[in-house]
Amino acid sequence: MSVSLTRSDGVTVLTLTSDPSSTCPPLCQLLGSLCYTPALCSPSRLLTLPRRGSQAVLGSLWIMSGLMHASLGAILLATYGAASYQLMDTYFPVWLGVIFVGVGLNSILTEKYPRPCVLLLSVILNLFGAAMSITAIVWYSTHFYSMCNDDYYYWRPTPSPSPENVALKERCLEVRGIARALVYGVSGVLLSLSVLGLCVGVSSAVLSCKALRPARDKAGSKALLEKPRYCNK
Predict the structure, then answer these.
(1) Of 78, 89, 94, 118, which one is least surrounded by beta carbons within 10 A?
(2) Domain assignment of residue 115, yes or no
(3) Radius of gyration (C-alpha) of the chain in whole angstroms
(4) What GO cellular component entries does it have (predicted)?
């Protein structure tokens, strides 16, 4: 579908020409023609990345962080009763790890196919990954605070328990303390991985933005550097 715009005195005419051989409905053809830009989606236009191989390295870091998030999140979910109930209900580390892996795969594709549309998608996904990393940092910080509250004292029965029940509760609290120590360690690693994801996302987005700079600006700066200079004696 081709779109043409004609303007006259006070009148603007928008002409749409549909493709009769296309199987898509006219509305889909209209959206495709509006979203498609040859400058962004041309398959023959490849841009030069500022540092060759950097996007692949950053993508590998994204994937490593995502896999560790998913695996350590499964460990937290296995320690039922030691982790916070928000974690048990939302499965936050698991699907956050899936997001990180997806962003990492996109960064590797950006390294292999540095086209403008791929770079633009990389910027959007890396900024989204950085925003999710900030959310994870806040989440795990509040998770540390919620684990410091011991709800055992709020549910203590009024009558005096028997010595057997007291011994059983002491053993349960001891095992729960060990499980909480494990949860503290895993949460600390997840917090560090979230900080790493924030740094990787910002770095990858900056590199993609540098590659998306107009070519004429690069050509102008190159011509300025190659311009001969004369010294007045």
Answers:
(1) 89
(2) yes
(3) 28
(4) membrane
Scanning the structure block, which residue is given the tokens 């998030």? 69
Are residues 189 and 114 located together in one domain of the fold?
yes
Domain that holds residue 7: 2-36
The two tokens of residue 230 are 């004369």
| Shared domain check, 119 and 27 | no
Q: How far is CA 4 from CA 13, 15, 17, 18, in A?
A: 8, 5, 9, 12
- pTM equals 0.64
Whether residue 99 is found in the same domain as residue 203: yes
Model pLDDT for residues 47-106, shown as the tens digit of each residue: 566 667 788 888 899 999 999 988 888 887 777 655 666 666 778 888 889 999 999 999
Q: Which residues contact 69 (CB under 8 A, 6 or more apart)?
A: 93, 94, 96, 97, 100, 190, 193
Instruction: State the Cα torsion 198-202-204-209 to the nearest 10°.
Output: 160
Q: 94-138: per-residue pLDDT in tens?
A: 888 999 999 999 988 888 887 777 888 888 999 999 999 998 888
Structurally, how many domains does the chain consist of? 2
Q: Which residue has the tokens 């594709």?
A: 109
Residue 204 lies in a domain: yes
Regarding whether 11 and 73 lie in a shared domain, the answer is: no
Residues 67, 105 within the same domain: yes
